[in-house]
C-alpha cells in the first residue's frame, strides 16, 4: 500500500524530529537519485550541467544543498534564485563554496534551463500556495533538453489535493521525502510527477487519508474459490442493465461480472436473448442474488430497476442511467438502506449527482474534493472514474487507483467495470475493497490489452484481458513473485 499524507500531517511528523538530520537525509537521497540519473544519461556525474531552480523555502534549500554535493563530484552547477532575497542562506553558501554559479537574471536562468542535463525544481514544495508567480511560471513551458527532477513535488501542484490551479512544472522524475502526498497520486497533479521515487527520512506520520493499493494488496483481497466452494459461495450478481437501445451495455457488464469471478450472473433486462447468445452461462431466472448492479444502458427500465435494487438487502452498485435517476431523486433515495451502496460516476454523472452546481470539468480538476463531497452527501462509497480513478468513503477516506491508461476512455469500458465491481461485491468484499480492486484490475487489463507503447482497445478487449490481469496480480503478490506495478 502506498500511503499519502497531508501537508499538516507531514509538518507535524517533521516537527517531532531534529531538523538537521532531516535535511541531511533528504539531500543525500536527492543527490544520489540525481547522480544515478546523470550516470545513466551521460555515463558520469563529472562534467554534466546541472541547473537548480531555487525558491524561498526548504524545497529550494534541499535543491541547493543537493546541487552543492553534485558540484563536489565535478558537475557544473548553476542556480537561479526566484525569490533572491529569501533563498536558503546556508544552502546558498554551500553551493557557492562548492563552486556553483548563482544568478538572479531570468534570461541567464532560461538559457541554462534549455541546456542543462538535469534541472532540479526546488521552486516550491509542500509550502506552495496557489498558482506559480510569473517568474516561476515561465519554466512550466520553457524548452529544455535535460531531465527535470522535482524536489518533493512538481512546483504548481497542490500537495493535498492534486489540483493544479495555474502553471505547473512537468517532471520526468519526482523525488519525494518521508511519505507520498495526495497531490502526487491524484490527477491532474499526478500527471506532472513522472517516475516517483520516495526517500525515507524517518518520518512517522499518522494514518493516511489517501492510499493507493499495490499488487500485493490486491493479491490479498481477490477472492479465490476454496475446494468446497459452490456458485453461491463465490457470489451471484444480479444485473439490471441494457435495453433495446443499448443491448451492448448488458453484454459488457455481464462480461465484466463473469470475469470478475462471479459464481453466476442473473440477468434481468430486455436484451435477454442477445445476452444468453453471447454468454450462455447467464441465468435468466429469478433467484438468490448477493449483489445488484443497476444502470448500465438500462434506459426506460431504470426507475423500476433502481426501486427493486434499492429495496433489496444486498449491496447495490449504481452506474450510468441508474446514476441519472438517482440524481433526479437526490440523496434521500438511499436513506433507508441498511446494506451498502456503491456509486460509480464519471465526472459528468458526478456533476449531476452534485445537483448541477459544478461542471464535469470542475469535478475532474478537483477529484478528491468532489468524490468526498458525493460520498458524504449520499452516505455511499463513490468510485469517481477517469484518469486516476478515486474511491471515497462517506468519512472522507480515499483510495486512488494507480493502474489504468487513457486507452480505457472508450465506449462501454465503464460497463465492464460495473460488472466486475458487482462480482467482487457479490463475493463478499465491502465497497471500500471491491471498488478499488475492480478499478485496479480494470486498469491493468486496459494496459495489458493496449500493450506497450499502446494501441486502441475496445471494451470487449478489456474484458477479455481481465483473467491476465488477475493472474498478473496473483503472481506479483506472491512473495518472491514479479515486482508489483508502480512499486
Ligand atoms: N525540512 C527539510 O529539512 C527539508 C525540506 N524539503 C522540502 O521543503 C518543503 C518544505 O519547506 P517549506 O516549508 O519552506 O516550503 P516550500 O519549500 O514549499 O516553500 C514555501 C515558501 O515558498 C513561497 N511560496 C508559496 N507559494 C508560492 C508560489 N505559488 N509561488 C512562489 N513561491 C511560493 C512562500 O514564500 C513560502 O514561504 C517540503 O516540500 C520538503 O519536502 C526538502 O527540500 C529537503 C529537506
Ligand atoms: N483519461 C483517462 N485515463 C484513464 N482512464 C480513463 C480515462 N478516461 C476514462 N477512463 C476510464 O474508462 C472507463 C470509462 O467509463 P465510462 O465513462 O463509464 O464509459 P462508458 O459509459 O462508455 O462505459 C472508466 O473506467 C474510466 O475510469
Ligand atoms: K518542487
Automatic annotation (TrEMBL):
Transmembrane segments: none annotated. Binds 1 potassium ion per subunit. Keywords: ATP-binding, Isomerase, Lyase, Metal-binding, Multifunctional enzyme, NAD, NADP, Nucleotide-binding, Potassium. Residues 4-209 form the YjeF N-terminal domain. Its EC number is 4.2.1.136. It comes from the Bacteria. (6S)-NADPHX binds at residues 249, 297, 346, 415. Residues 214-473 form the YjeF C-terminal domain. It is an enzyme of class 4 (lyase). Gene3D superfamilies: 3.40.1190.20, YjeF N-terminal domain. Coiled coil: none annotated. AMP binds at residues 385-389, 414. Its cofactor is K(+); Mg(2+). It catalyses: (6R)-NADHX = (6S)-NADHX; (6S)-NADPHX + ADP = AMP + phosphate + NADPH + H(+); (6S)-NADHX + ADP = AMP + phosphate + NADH + H(+); (6R)-NADPHX = (6S)-NADPHX. In the C-terminal section; belongs to the NnrD/CARKD family. In the N-terminal section; belongs to the NnrE/AIBP family. Homotetramer. Catalyzes the dehydration of the S-form of NAD(P)HX at the expense of ADP, which is converted to AMP. Together with NAD(P)HX epimerase, which catalyzes the epimerization of the S- and R-forms, the enzyme allows the repair of both epimers of NAD(P)HX, a damaged form of NAD(P)H that is a result of enzymatic or heat-dependent hydration. Bifunctional enzyme that catalyzes the epimerization of the S- and R-forms of NAD(P)HX and the dehydration of the S-form of NAD(P)HX at the expense of ADP, which is converted to AMP. This allows the repair of both epimers of NAD(P)HX, a damaged form of NAD(P)H that is a result of enzymatic or heat-dependent hydration. HAMAP family: NADHX_dehydratase. This is ADP-dependent (S)-NAD(P)H-hydrate dehydratase. The lineage of its organism: Bacteria, Bacillati, Actinomycetota, Actinomycetes, Kitasatosporales.
Amino acid at each position: 500500500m502506498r500511503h499519502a499524507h497531508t501537508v499538516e500531517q507531514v509538518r507535524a511528523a517533521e516537527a517531532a524530529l531534529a531538523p538537521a538530520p532531516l535535511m541531511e537525509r533528504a539531500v543525500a537521497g536527492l543527490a544520489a537519485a540525481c547522480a544515478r540519473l546523470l550516470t545513466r544519461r551521460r555515463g558520469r556525474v563529472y562534467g554534466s550541467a546541472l541547473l537548480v531552480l531555487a525558491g524561498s523555502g526548504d524545497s529550494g534549500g534541499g535543491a541547493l544543498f543537493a546541487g552543492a554535493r553534485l558540484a563536489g563530484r565535478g558537475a557544473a552547477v548553476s542556480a537561479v534564485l526566484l525569490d533572491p532575497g529569501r533563498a536558503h542562506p546556508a544552502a546558498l553558501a554551500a553551493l557557492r563554496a562548492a563552486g556553483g554559479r548563482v544568478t538572479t537574471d531570468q534570461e541567464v536562468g532560461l538559457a541554462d534551463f534549455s541546456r542543462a542535463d538535469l534541472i532540479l525544481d526546488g521552486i516550491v514544495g509542500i509550502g506552495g500556495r496557489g498558482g506559480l508567480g510569473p517568474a516561476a511560471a515561465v519554466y512550466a513551458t520553457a524548452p529544455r533538453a535535460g531531465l527535470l527532477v522535482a524536489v518533493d513535488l512538481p512546483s504548481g501542484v497542490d500537495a493535498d489535493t492534486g489540483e493544479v490551479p495555474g502553471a505547473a512544472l512537468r517532471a520526468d522524475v519526482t523525488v519525494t521525502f518521508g511519505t507520498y502526498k495526495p497531490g502526487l497520486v491524484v490527477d491532474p497533479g499526478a500527471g506532472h510527477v513522472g517516475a516517483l521515487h520516495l526517500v525515507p527520512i524517518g518520518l512517522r506520520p499518522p494514518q493516511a487519508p489517501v492510499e493507493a493499493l499495490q499488487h500485493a494488496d490486491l493479491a490479498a483481497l481477490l477472492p479465490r474459490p476454496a475446494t468446497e466452494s459452490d456458485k453461491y459461495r463465490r457470489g451471484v450478481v444480479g444485473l439490471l442493465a441494457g435495453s433495446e437501445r443499448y443491448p451492448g451495455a448488458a453484454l459488457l457488464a455481464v462480461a465484466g461480472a463473469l470475469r470478475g469471478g462471479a459464481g453466476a450472473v442473473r440477468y434481468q433486462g430486455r436484451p435477454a436473448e442477445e445476452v444468453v447468445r453471447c454468454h450462455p452461462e447467464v441465468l435468466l431466472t429469478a433467484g438468490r442474488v448477493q449483489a445488484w448492479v443497476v444502470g448500465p444502458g438500462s434506459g426506460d427500465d431504470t426507475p423500476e430497476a433502481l426501486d427493486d435494487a434499492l429495496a433489496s438487502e444486498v449491496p447495490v452498485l449504481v452506474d450510468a442511467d441508474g446514476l441519472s435517476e438517482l440524481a433526479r431523486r437526490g440523496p434521500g433515495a438511499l436513506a433507508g438502506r441498511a446494506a451498502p451502496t456503491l456509486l460509480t460516476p464519471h465526472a459528468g454523472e458526478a456533476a449531476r449527482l452534485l445537483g448541477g452546481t459544478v461542471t464535469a470539468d470542475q469535478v475532474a480538476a478537483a477529484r478528491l474534493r468532489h468524490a468526498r463531497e458525493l460520498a458524504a452527501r449520499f452516505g455511499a462509497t463513490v468510485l469517481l472514474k477517469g484518469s486516476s480513478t478515486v474511491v471515497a468513503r462517506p468519512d472522507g477516506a480515499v483510495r486512488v487507483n494507480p493502474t489504468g491508461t487513457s486507452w480505457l476512455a472508450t465506449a462501454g469500458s465503464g460497463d465492464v467495470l460495473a460488472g466486475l465491481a458487482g462480482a467482487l461485491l457479490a463475493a463478499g468484499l465491502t465497497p471500500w475493497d471491491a471498488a478499488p480492486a475492480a478499478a485496479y484490475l480494470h486498469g491493468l487489463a486496459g494496459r495489458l490489452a493496449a500493450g506497450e507503447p499502446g494501441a486502441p482497445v475496445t471494451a470487449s478487449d478489456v474484458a477479455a484481458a481481465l483473467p491476465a490481469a488477475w493472474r498478473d496480480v496473483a503472481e506479483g503478490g506472491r512473495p518472491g513473485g514479479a515486482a508489483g506495478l508502480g512499486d
